[in-house]
Write a structure and sequence with these properties.
Blueprint: H1 11-38, H2 42-83, H3 86-89, H4 105-112, H5 129-137, H6 143-147, H7 151-160, H8 173-181, H9 185-194
GO molecular function: endonuclease activity
Coiled coil: 45-72
Transmembrane segments: 14-32
Amino acid sequence: MNLLIIDLSNIPCWLIPLLVGLICAILGYLLGRLAGKGNDSSDDLDLWKRKNASLKADLEACRSQLKTATAAPVAASSTASMSSSFAAQTETIPEPTITIVPYDPAAAKAAFGKTIKEDDLTVVEGIGPKIRELFHNFDIKTWASLGDTTVEKCQEVLQSGGKRFEIHRPQSWPMQAKLAAEGKWGELKKWQDEHDYGKE
């Protein structure tokens, strides 16, 4: 009768290569993790930081332009209100108006390289057909009316469409629509080429 006898003297012969292989695998894994940490997306992070700084600078420039644009009418109205009656003092300052020019389809096509229909809100970067319909539901159907709309109103229009429209940022939409209404196609195209956050 032959019994299987395990020779304990031979165990180290197969155990040592197994342990060495296991240790090598663990060390390889740890070195790979360590090397991977040094190869993170720091370049991408720097790029996004620069973009963020640029956008903040643009925002501050827009805010300062808005302050100077509204400061002159406020100063003029406060001077006039000192010398006028109480009724004149209660007048509200009208918002800046848009100088609407006749639509020139050739100029629009020259700037954008495609035919643009008059008062098509989708020329504004970030507005697609579904968002255009939301604005139409609020009776905002022209570039001029969108140009005179506040960002808060644009946000309200987006909220009327539900959760899926909350990712959009309409901060630049009135400004873009104003450029379109004023026929400043070159400026609008240049702005859209330089900025991509209308679609965010």
